[in-house]
Specification:
Length: about 270
């Protein structure tokens, strides 16, 4: 499986993203909830580390490590957007732990089940080569929306969520999901959401996904000169350079190394 994205992450970046992700749990999720959440993520660390954020390149972060890269960006964005809302005098209806918990777990449903991964390597060679689709959805999974599956996983782990967290995870796609309309398009004050946390995490997710889309597609759509335009601020950081197979030698986990070697040019 070669060159599936121009934004493929270096193995070192995948590992440091994972440490950053676990660090948010350590720092913000307290007590029994934090312990249970961290134990779960550590138990499935290689699955999470390698998960893409989407199974088609037309979406966002469709490459190994794309999921954690996306979630970290949403957490970072949520922290900044929360600051803006507070500076604008939003009424204080949620805690910082609720903010980070919701951002960290908003896309947890993309994990699949404890037994089955949602995104599998594409087995159809034609789709892989002609459509550049590196993954396919695992049809052993019955339909469940990403928010519903994420909340179900948390319930199976015995991790309680507050009402704010439940609504924020459930509604994180905002009005991009028709099913959210009854919650978000009410004209009666008494039936509107009673916390702005929902909008803050939605904004952070929207921003992260848009940035990931731009990094993948704007250079392709606008041509190579687009990257040099002053108003087109794509930073060329190490993590966005093509992956070199020699970087695999720095990965300590044998399991991770084996999985990753399937993705990178030798
Ligand atoms: Fe997301």
């Amino acid at each position: 499986m070669k060159s599936i994205s121009t934004n493929m992450l270096q193995p070192e970046q995948i590992l440091s993203n994972w440490e950053e992700f676990l660090g948010y749990i350590d720092m913000y999720i307290m007590g029994d909830r934090g312990a249970k959440l961290k134990a779960f993520y550590e138990q499935y660390s290689e699955r999470f580390m390698m998960m893409p954020a989407a199974h088609k390149p037309q979406y966002h972060n469709c490459f190994p490590g794309g999921y954690v890269d996306h979630v970290n960006r949403v957490v970072q964005g949520a922290i900044k957007i929360d600051r803006v809302w507070r500076e604008m005098d939003v009424i204080d209806t949620y805690t910082t732990e609720e903010l980070i918990f919701s951002a960290l777990n908003h896309d947890l449903g993309k994990f699949g089940t404890f037994e089955q991964e949602a995104y599998l390597p594409q087995t159809d060679q034609w789709r892989r080569e002609k459509l550049n689709e590196p993954y396919m959805f695992n049809d052993r999974l019955e339909f469940m929306s990403v928010p519903d599956r994420g909340l179900y996983i948390l319930s199976q782990l015995g991790i309680t969520v507050t009402k704010n967290e439940m609504l924020t995870i459930k509604l994180h796609d905002g009005l991009y999901d028709e099913a959210n309309k009854p919650y978000l398009m009410s004209w009666m004050p008494e039936t509107r959401p009673r916390t702005s946390l929902i909008y803050i995490v939605h904004q952070a997710d929207l921003m992260a996904a848009r940035i990931e889309f731009e990094r993948e597609w704007l250079p392709k759509l606008l041509g190579p000169k687009a990257e040099n335009k002053a108003n087109f601020n794509l930073k060329k950081e190490d993590k966005k350079t093509p992956v070199k197979s020699k970087a695999l030698s720095s990965v300590k986990s044998e399991g991770l190394k084996n999985v990753m070697s399937n993705f990178f040019d030798e």
